[in-house]
Amino acid sequence: MLAVTVNVKDRLLEIRDVDRKGKGNVLLKTLRNGICGTDREIANFKFKYTQPEEGEYLILGHEALAKVISVKDEGLFKENDIVMPINRRGCGKCLNCILGRPDFCDTGLFRETGIRGLDGFMREFFYDDAEYLVKVFPGIEDIAILAQPLSDLEKSVEVILKIQERLNWRCWDSTYSCRKALIGGTGPIGILTSLLLKTMGFDVTMMNKREINEVEEEIVKETGINYYDNTKGLGSLEGGFDIYFDTTGYIPLILDAIRLSKRNSIIALFGFPSTDIKGDFNSDLLFNIIDKQIAIVGLENGQKPHFERALVHLATWKSIWPKTMAKLITRKVKIEDFEEVKKAIKEKGKDEIKVTIEWG
Amino acid sequence: MLAVTVNVKDRLLEIRDVDRKGKGNVLLKTLRNGICGTDREIANFKFKYTQPEEGEYLILGHEALAKVISVKDEGLFKENDIVMPINRRGCGKCLNCILGRPDFCDTGLFRETGIRGLDGFMREFFYDDAEYLVKVFPGIEDIAILAQPLSDLEKSVEVILKIQERLNWRCWDSTYSCRKALIGGTGPIGILTSLLLKTMGFDVTMMNKREINEVEEEIVKETGINYYDNTKGLGSLEGGFDIYFDTTGYIPLILDAIRLSKRNSIIALFGFPSTDIKGDFNSDLLFNIIDKQIAIVGLENGQKPHFERALVHLATWKSIWPKTMAKLITRKVKIEDFEEVKKAIKEKGKDEIKVTIEWG
Amino acid sequence: MLAVTVNVKDRLLEIRDVDRKGKGNVLLKTLRNGICGTDREIANFKFKYTQPEEGEYLILGHEALAKVISVKDEGLFKENDIVMPINRRGCGKCLNCILGRPDFCDTGLFRETGIRGLDGFMREFFYDDAEYLVKVFPGIEDIAILAQPLSDLEKSVEVILKIQERLNWRCWDSTYSCRKALIGGTGPIGILTSLLLKTMGFDVTMMNKREINEVEEEIVKETGINYYDNTKGLGSLEGGFDIYFDTTGYIPLILDAIRLSKRNSIIALFGFPSTDIKGDFNSDLLFNIIDKQIAIVGLENGQKPHFERALVHLATWKSIWPKTMAKLITRKVKIEDFEEVKKAIKEKGKDEIKVTIEWG
Amino acid sequence: MLAVTVNVKDRLLEIRDVDRKGKGNVLLKTLRNGICGTDREIANFKFKYTQPEEGEYLILGHEALAKVISVKDEGLFKENDIVMPINRRGCGKCLNCILGRPDFCDTGLFRETGIRGLDGFMREFFYDDAEYLVKVFPGIEDIAILAQPLSDLEKSVEVILKIQERLNWRCWDSTYSCRKALIGGTGPIGILTSLLLKTMGFDVTMMNKREINEVEEEIVKETGINYYDNTKGLGSLEGGFDIYFDTTGYIPLILDAIRLSKRNSIIALFGFPSTDIKGDFNSDLLFNIIDKQIAIVGLENGQKPHFERALVHLATWKSIWPKTMAKLITRKVKIEDFEEVKKAIKEKGKDEIKVTIEWG
Fold it and tell me: Which of B15, B8, B126, B4 is nearest to B65 (CA)?
């Protein structure tokens, strides 16, 4: 069967015939893969943690929609169910992994499909265990692939809300309507975070260092999210902000956010550093964090409960913001078009949001 | 303008011309009202807490979808927005009411539109304050009226999950997939609770003391919820249950549930007593509660955050379970058909789930 | 070595020479045992769950203060440390037991030292594993034995506070000063619960169906706890109550408490049924639970974190309420006085609070 | 009556006769004041937020033990009760202040006695409202003054534990025994934090950039807290750490802590910047925060519930660590010794931990 493989040693990205279906009680046929930034870093041999499950090549892919072909033990799944596999797998040693929460693995010995230590989902068939599969509701198969990146954000928002329980953070009407969320970056992560926080009742502003583009304009119009062009910094952003959610990894912007955020706010760091540009951690910054009692938190990886919630929210958005949802998957590439697929994996297209690989 | 009014003293249910639009910054035009069991009790003069806002008659109605006609202060809403008004209003004295949570009013001095102390929404126009209005997402206007009863259940499930945080209640995969919820009663409340818990990942069984009917069969088929006929009690229900959610108010069933529920389970009591049939609170029952560390909790009323979540879930269900959603509003009556409307308010129809009154 | 053993089959309570020290990395010498109601039920062959670890007799005792004699693996403990062993041990199968919380064992397959399936601590020496031992701070060895029953109450109060997080339950000054706790029963459990809730800032009333006795009067005077004689019911208790904590197992009193408790209150059931007197679970009771949104919860067993907190509170009380603390251990019996020990285990003495067995 | 006053404009620190007793229902006589770093900054005219309640001088003092002289409305307090006044008072506008939690004031318009906008407690008598007074348990009057700084740390630890609820942070025995806390700085704040975390079951190391001194050696011996000399950095600290609690405000040390802390750890920032030495916020630091999902949080000010808990813990420590407690108040100065008092307020003594002013 076909698979997309990476050989770091020989610097090869190939689509070729392999015979590695993995292990597990459920046999699955891949319907679609999503491509994300980590895939691109791996495929361009820039990701330092790439690690094959065995041998010299790794099967790529951590975003997948799949169909159940057969099930060894009857139980949670049956033939033809549409499912999504979760991508991070526990170390088997720490309590968080035992509790099904390898996103908070204490040892750092977790593995990730298509990234480190486990073959990924860019292959025609694979076996997996039922505990790692999430059932996809009918009616949202077209956009369900977004549940993988969205699961990370569901977990992120869960953490943000938990941290803010340190105080009374709800407004006079007991909603979050008075709390302003600023999202740095308008890539897929920035857009999905904006949609999620808007759905939860926040006053949301998404932000980029340029004028709003056409797609963003349509999203803003349909959803009521605001747009802010931060070319001249954050200073003129009306009303301040209670959450700054960073997807850019751009340190000067993060420091600016710490300085300008409101009392009791939270700075959520999701985007890995994007450049080597650094900033000063000085007395003023430290004073700001303490005096305003700011919380800053690093965030990554969602697990099964977050996939479940991601699917619920995708279904919501399909009903209420259909135009926005129709814009998020910007291109579909057929697996048969080898060169197209490889190019899509290697390079980000212009104005691309999410690109998928389609399997027959 | 027209309004549905109740005069308890003279035992009158009337649709007639009134000039009472109430107070507030936003003028609203009613689009639709839902009718529920409390309306029927009031309209049949059996509800003991009925209390007019002023004078001798009360304008009925606590479930409404409305359109914004004009707004005094620009802000959260604008003309033509579709909104739902929340129905319980705080006492202004206790902390829970000040926090926007009159559902947990400490004094019992709260008021409820169309029920006690405040005119309701069965009138052509009314004024209200922005803080009591919830914006309805586009695309779900047809089913949004269900958000009022559903808000009570969103609050109920919030309380259930909070109470169960007393232990580790999540399963090995960190979801609720191993937790079984049993819902007593298949009226609108029972069905909505079943849909909600299913969406949140529970293994859900809805239950009635008869064979499954046609609508229930379709719901079961589309959603994966189970059905149990408890004619012969709960004893043969496979695998026990971790939540028993009662909408029946039938005491022998509640006692049976306490006896048969699993260790660390929760008994959620939502349905007011339906008959005078009682049961024994005996040593066996007390032993069961302590030895199994069961929690039992009374539940009522959702507030603004629960309306918001209810609208999110209705939008989800419209995408994933469209057939089920199409069955829940079983009849629409036009306000012009005075006798039809009064009959619908007075009597529950056969196989009725939710009946609405449509305003021009 | 000596041990107190029970043979249910032959109805024998004996103090005799045995050679059963159990297993574990730490060898311990028993300094003191506490005697509680469960010991008495076992010793009078009335407890239905009594189960030896092996053979026909069970070594009694689940409350102990002990000294470390030797440690196989150096680590948490060293020679001469004073420790308390925890008494409930997990099933090894469910997540709660794996998390060190067998108090919420899902399977019911847990074991309890000196009660079911495991030999107890009424023996001169025993082995145990470090994970089941709690280090006792210096300076409180005289009263530390109370940490075993108190641990159950630390857990109970933890659960109560968690359940009440369903609403804003704190007062205007963000303490619990406006929340009234009523404790039914003034045995050791009732007194310890009263002290604990008083320490946490509640307005506490302890209650018995008789006039206050001398010891209670001294406690009331030193601590500021109130006393209520409920001979004529709960009706004349000023200001109502937000917690009713039952240690009596007397059902008519529990039902009265549900009827008279305040909105949003909690009924905590700790005392197992004491008689077969029962009451009605009727419409009025169900209406009360729902309309006032009362939570009712069964409570039992504390674990290691609760032992730790119990020791902290005992140390607090020794500083602030020394007279009260001096009254709680009412009698000490030497293990050498066989008949005295057996009598103390079999029968509760007049005005007894806590009786201990002293080992050389 | 006498008072310690500061006139910033004329740069005067005086002990003199004033006639300003303030307002409130309770008249109090000051027994003792504590002196802290903020007092010193104010008294040396270096604190930029100093603001009189009225006129040109401010009465200093935010740490006090006082006796109730008279009470206008009978209620929570009676004559001769020993109490502590809390020092931060709400803005009256935001929800956190209304909830009695001005420590999380959203507006920043709170006031602080003896610091900004309100006269302080360094005066013979003052009036205050009952809601701002915390009753001191008998038996700990000698050390109760420490409850003011300790209240800030009780709040800090509450926030730390809340933030760490984002994951399962408890150990296999459900305590915190496997979690290592590192405390930077061994001033009164560092010592009290160490004692508090040790009491709560953490493995605690206190740290300073020098060899351990005599007092610290005695504390280490009595309490089981560890000491670490970080002259050569944090690298050789065995086993890493899960909490770094900073009281130093020294940025290079904070950055080192972020780099070396364990996965899922928390960096608690309590000490305001102590110098202008800064560090780099670079890619490596950002990567560390995200990849290890570190939380960083600014912390300040405890409120009434935290004073209550502080008093409980002081009482605990008096029982279990009497030698340590006897060392914390290093000097007492009588108010009559004007020059001594002024000197004590202006300058920190050698090896001083806490200095108090004694009022007749």
Answer: B126
